[in-house]
Predict the 3D structure of the following.
Amino acid sequence: MTRHAVVVAGGGPTGLVLAGELALAGVADVVVERRTDQTVDGSRAGGLHSRTLEVLDQRGIVERFLAAGEVMQVQGLAGIRRDISDFPTRHPYGLALWQSQIEPLLAGWVDGLGVRVLRGSEVIGLAQDDTGVDVEVSGGRRLRAGYLVGCDGGRSRVRKAAGIDVRGVDASTSWMIAEVEMDEEPELGFRRDSAGTHAIGRRQAGEPLRLVLTERQLDHTGDPTFDELRAALVGVYGTDFGLRSATWISRFTDLTRQAESYRRGRVLLAGDAAHVHPPQGGQGLNTGVQDAVNLGGSWPRWWTGPHRTTCWTATAPSGTRSALGSCTTPLPRSPSAVPTTAPWPCTTPCPGC
Ligand SMILES: Cc1cc2nc3c(=O)[nH]c(=O)nc-3n(C[C@H](O)[C@H](O)[C@H](O)COP(=O)(O)OP(=O)(O)OC[C@H]3O[C@@H](n4cnc5c(N)ncnc54)[C@H](O)[C@@H]3O)c2cc1C
């Protein structure tokens, strides 16, 4: 059995950033990732918020993302654009960049830091005791970890195996999402009807069209088929616009859930494993990255110090930032990181800190 200070289950955005943070902090970690490479199914998240750009800047890697994406004003309230260009930050804007482009950039960073990623491997079980966690991995491999962090997404097996419950609000609406090619030029933009709001868009020429269609039914099992997508299009627009092919068809709901605790013993949670929310707010990837920086950047201080039994334990009330501690010391930065005017203290008190 190989031994590691930290095993990270899941190499999505949260797991990769956590792995990088731990490596920068000198903590020996390994990532166990189910996918064999960093290919993302569909485009998923559409960009990075100002705060996420700030933390990537603190790690000295923001230029990689800025070079690949498009800077724009993305904040809004009730359909009204809010311009944040006068905010006191080096990055007073959002960055349009698909998750399918973000993840390979993060994977390249982690690779450059020498983090070992066990690809094509799945965490299938765990057993923890006072001194560590035995992590059972597919293919008969067993790892011994000082701590295991579940960054394994909304259906987190780690969370379930650790016995951590989730609570929140059930789904009220289901949406179909797809990336498609059509023979005809469809009606771009939003359309509203009695089912809700539907949208068809294309960020730039040459990219597939992206559709989001509100479904009349809430309960479904699995992803929609191509025929269901065609029927839904006809149901809303009266035509399928010559729907030719789809590279991605999926569905999502507005289900909102948060883990009752982000830690049980030596098992911790971050990102979607700890909280899921409707993707319309454009938050999941961004909050996951920020969870990872909160947790990983402060690891050496918190997990080797006297506070280790209390931090990351407190239940974070729905919609708030993850509870970490009341420390006011800026997080460590990578040697190559550019200085920032905005240090990042933890401001949420937790018992004992
Ligand atoms: C349609 C859609 C649009 C979205 N738009 C946005 C947006 O605009 N902005 C935004 O910020 N967010 C958006 N999101 C949310 C965003 O995609 C997620 O919040 C983000 O991917 C969460 O990252 P994560 O690393 O926590 O989890 P995930 O991305 O789910 O990564 C989990 C990783 O763990 C791996 N894994 C799972 N189980 C195991 C296991 N047992 N063992 C080993 N590995 C495992 C998976 O293969 C995966 O790589 C959107 C999501 C959807 C579906």
